[in-house]
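Input/output pair, single chain:
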Amino acid sequence: MPFIGREKHPIPGASNGLDGFSQLKQPLSRPSSPSTWASSAESGLSTNNTEQFFVKPVGMRPNTVFIGRELELAELHKMLMDKRRRAEGTSAVLLQCLPGGGKTHLAREYIYQYRDEYPGGIFFVRAKSLAELAAGFWDIARKVNLSLGESNNPQHFVSAVRKWLNRRHEWLDGIHFSYTQDLRNFIPDSKDTSLLYTSTERAVVDHHHFMNPQIIRTPLLSAREAQILLQS
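Output:
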């Protein structure tokens, strides 16, 4: 990760509610100007609060072909926009299936097809490790121009991003995870918002720290559908 350094000492203050950060090394020495920051996310929109943010991993692009998941796509939108859940806080959904089952393909289709439904922004991060998850939150902090002072402590910017999202509405947060330890420390909660998990794991199901997500198990594509995708 370009913004996780190699200091040998644990991050100070890791016991203040984000104990998992004791596993991280000190992050980057922050560059002096935004133009020099290494980027692992893209945002084609202004950071003005009246405009929509779109923060995503580098290389994430719209699907060239979408097939065999129309029913799941409609069900996903219905669940994420659940009025009762959103009136109380964040409406969360887990897309779960075997490796290669198409969960990321479905999530990507949803994000691009329903992007305009989330004027508060779309924030998609990967979480194969604590370092990767923290790096994703660093990207969000950078893209929305959060004021972080001179602190290089990941606990600081993760907390700042969560607080910012907790005060904001109409956003979609996406987390593609295989790492669950300490994941709860990254989960925001705000009324009229949605949270989309994608994983082979079921660890977040029926867990209040993860907003008790509803679950959609994506079936494997038929041989014909898989062939069409491979040829696209």
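The two ends are 32 Å apart (CA to CA). The first helix runs from residue 70 to 80.
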